[in-house]
Amino acid sequence: MKKFEAKIEKLKEKFDDALEKARGQKKSLQDLRHEFLSRKRGHITRLFEELKELPVEERPAFGKLLNEFKNYVLEKLSKDVSVKPAPIQYEAVPREPTVITAEREDLTLPGRSLYWGAPHPVMLFAQEIEDIFLAMGFSVAEGPEIETDYYNFEALNFPPHHPARDDWDTLYISEDLLLRTHTSPMQIRVMEKNKPPIRIIIPGRVFRREAIDPTHLPMFYQVEGLLVDESVTFAHLKGTLEHFLRALLGEKIAIRFRPSFFPFTEPSAEVDIGCTVCRGQDPGCSVCGGTGWKELLGAGMVDPQVLKNVNIDPEKYSGWAFGLGIERAAMFSHRISDMRTFYENDLRFIRQFSLK
Ligand code: FA5
């Protein structure tokens, strides 16, 4: 027993000496830890091995002594081995106070508002037109912008080479395919698929070979109206259009029906309205040319031949149709003197309509 105790005592002295020499040197302190505590050959590890050889009754007392020595070593080393690297000295760089002021958000400023897109004024106006007809029991359909010669002309009573085609000249994609010049081809498509009673409007884009001026564009919107039933007369057409135009442009709008010609209606009329831009006061008005009137739509009773073309019996059924220029109507509603402004994409103009 004495022998074991003396061994511990000796090792303790050895450790204290070595610690004294190694103090402040990280490498030496790590070596010291290794020498005493290494799991394989450390002095303390070996003493624990030897402990197993002592008589059983002596082991607790020596175990206690040995553990105390181990803790002593651990504690001494934990204080000295973990020599911390000298703290880094940060140099305080003075910041320009102006930089902070410039970067700081000024919460008292008003927020930047985002501009939300809105439907184009012509689309908004088309919706107003649709709403009036929906309220009268009409439905809404759309049709192809690329049409065949048959639907755009022939089924509407324009035989090939007929001079009336000149007024509706357009771009041809092939001999038979063209950009539709009016929404009237949809009369045929609707009547081919549906039997009377028919009450429908068809808004859409149309294309023409056109000399551009304040009231004419080469690409514009029309809305077609078609009603077919038994005992339909011109009086119904007149009453419906008057109601529609007053709902759209105001009760006081001046309306006049003028006899006209369309190959697909008989009789035919054009409907003019009193110029809202100059109110008939400006002889040089870019819209009415000083006449005080401007054409807004073409209309008439569906020609019996057109009804026959779609297998509807003209003895039993009659109908009326009209085709109105949407930009033209929007001009009169908003008192705009040049239709081209709708498509110049000047946001100062366009935005005026989005808050309606
Ligand atoms: C037609 O297009 C016929 N399809 C209308 C019709 C339908 C008659 C059904 C009978 C029965 P018109 O070419 O006149 O007709 O055009 C009708 C309307 O479209 C005109 O009154 C005008 O408001 C508008 N419009 C015509 N040409 C232009 C153009 N170049 N730019 C803008 N609007 C136009």
Verbal overview:
The strands form two sheets. This protein has a seven-stranded mixed β-sheet with strand order 1-4-5-9-8-7-6, sandwiched between helices. Strands 2-3 form a two-stranded antiparallel sheet. It has 356 residues and is of the alpha+beta class. The chain contains twelve helices and nine strands. Helices cover 38% and strands 18% of the residues. It is elongated and about 140 Å long. A hairpin with a 2-residue loop joins strand 6 (255-262) and strand 7 (265-274). The chain starts with a helix and ends in a 6-residue tail after the last helix. The structure holds adenosine-5'-[phenylalaninyl-phosphate]. Adenosine-5'-[phenylalaninyl-phosphate] is lined by residues 182, 184, 208, 210, 216-217, 220, 222, 224, 262, 265, 295-300, 321-325, 327-328.
Label the CATH architecture of the largest domain.
2-Layer Sandwich
The CATH topology assignment of the largest domain is BirA Bifunctional Protein, domain 2
Note the gap between the termini: 106 Å
- How many strand elements? 9
Strand sequence of the main sheet, in spatial order? 1-4-5-9-8-7-6
Helix content: 25-40%
Report the sheet with the most strands, covering strand number, pairing sense and barrel closure. Answer: 7 strands, mixed
Q: What's the CATH H-level homologous superfamily of the largest domain?
A: Bira Bifunctional Protein, Domain 2
Strand content: 15-25%
Number of structurally distinct domains: 2
List the ions, cofactors and other small molecules found in this model: adenosine-5'-[phenylalaninyl-phosphate]
Question: Over the alpha carbons, how many angstroms does the gyration radius reach?
Answer: 49 Å
Give the CATH level 1 class of the largest domain.
Alpha Beta
How many separate helices? Answer: 12
Taken from the alpha-carbon principal axes, the silhouette is: elongated
Flag low-confidence runs.
Answer: none
